[in-house]
Design brief:
There is one protein chain. The chain is mainly alpha-helical. It has a single domain, classed as Four Helix Bundle (Hemerythrin (Met), subunit A), CATH 1.20.120.910. It is 53% helix and 5% strand. The chain has 4 helices and 2 strands. It has a two-stranded antiparallel sheet. A hairpin with a 4-residue loop joins strand 1 and strand 2. The radius of gyration is 25 Å and the shape is flat.
Length: 156
């Protein structure tokens, strides 16, 4: 990567850090609750959502700071697995990318292979799960009295 491209990425990362850092400090949470239970629940959900977004933002800002350090070290744009250059188009689409497209695809293939496995926490082993286990037939009812209902209304 030439010096001009490194400087462009450094400027882009500085802008990201400034923009996202300023947005975080401007957010204020409503602590006073007005309204009924539904309003209170809505406010709580909004606070949880904002908290999750803040966590994601912090994670992203860490990745941006790491990318800036890589520019300073001269390793920005190099794949961490194979050491090859990461394609310029990939870096423009995902500036914090640390793997070339081939290594990233290989990593994702490995992760997707684990989806069909269940981890046994006692033995720390992985077992193959039955992929059709969620398709097992539920019991068929022949009479209405066989179906159990949970009452949502208390006894009167």
């Amino acid at each position: 990567m030439n010096q001009l491209n490194r400087q462009k990425f450094m400027n882009m990362f500085n802008d990201m850090l400034n923009d996202r850092g300023n947005n975080n400090s401007q957010r204020q949470f409503v602590t006073e609750t007005k309204g009924d239970e539904v309003d209170f629940a809505t406010q709580q959900k909004e606070q949880v959502l904002h908290h999750r977004l803040d966590q994601r933002n912090v994670f992203f800002l860490r990745k941006v700071a790491q990318a800036k350090q890589k520019i300073l070290d001269g390793t920005y744009g190099l794949c961490e697995d194979c050491g090859c250059d990461i394609n310029q188009k990939r870096l423009l689409a995902r500036p914090t990318a640390t793997l070339c497209i081939d290594c990233q695809e290989e990593k994702e293939r490995g992760e997707s292979a684990l989806i069909g496995k269940r981890r046994d926490l006692k033995d720390k082993k992985f077992e193959e799960m039955d992929p059709d286990s969620h398709l097992r037939a539920e019991p068929k009812f022949t009479k209405v009295k066989d179906i159990g209902f949970d009452s949502v209304v208390g006894d009167m």
